[in-house]
Every structure is written in structure tokens, then in C-alpha cells.
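We include the entry.

. . .
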Amino acid sequence: MNVCRVCSVGEVSPFRLVSDGRRLWVCHECDAVWFGDALPVGSADGRLYQYVERYRGPGTPTDWEQIEPVAE
């Protein structure tokens, strides 16, 4: 398990943004985000909500519906 360096609780897993295909790593607990192909080290690049379209209610995708898991 890859433990988040931000919250020290959540697992960090690889994903890709559906909108543009960029690879990122996301914490399942605090939504911290790191960009790149390798397991993240250092400070996070932000939070998931900063890189996806804002949720606008029923019928629109949530933050986590705008990313897809990828193999490590």
C-alpha cells in the first residue's frame, strides 16, 4: 500500500484524467494529487477538485467519475 504523504492515512493510486489523459496519483482519503508516471514523492500538486470540472448537481460527473484507474 502506498500511504499518502499529505494525510498519512489514505492509499495513493494511479489514475488518468478522462478529459486529457494526463496521468496522476490520487489519495483515496484526502484527494491529494501528484502528476507523473512514478510513485509520488514530495509535496502534492494540489487536490483533485482543482483538476476536474466542478460538480454541478445530478446528471453531471463527480470528481472521482472524471478519473480512471490505471495499472501501476
